[in-house]
Amino acid sequence: MAAIHQIILKPIITERTSAAYQDRGEYTFDVAPSATKFAIKEAIERLFGVKVTGVWTSNARGKVRRVGQSIGRRPHTKKAIVKLRDGDTIAIFEG
Known about the structure:
Radius of gyration: 15 Å
Shape: globular
CATH superfamily: RRM (RNA recognition motif) domain
Number of domains: 1
CATH class: Alpha Beta
Number of strands: 6
CATH topology: Alpha-Beta Plaits
Order of helices and strands: HEHEHEEEEH
Mean pLDDT: 90
Helix content: 25-40%
Structural class: alpha+beta
Low-confidence stretches: none
Strand content: 35-45%
């Protein structure tokens, strides 16, 4: 298994994700494109000391962008939505 910080890149904190964790206890993270659901679950449990009950992943292709005459591409991303056991929370989302 890769290092925890190579799997979980950063939390995604927006209005939509904050409503999701307040209502349903679901937290959203930006993860490595090669990360599996099992590896994401293990990394969250070891990093934050919580129990994960479900993991959903989503792949997003990078957009093609023009800057002047050159054409570039933003990187492909993968995000994971993680459901925790009732009563468990992750402090970085709370404040």
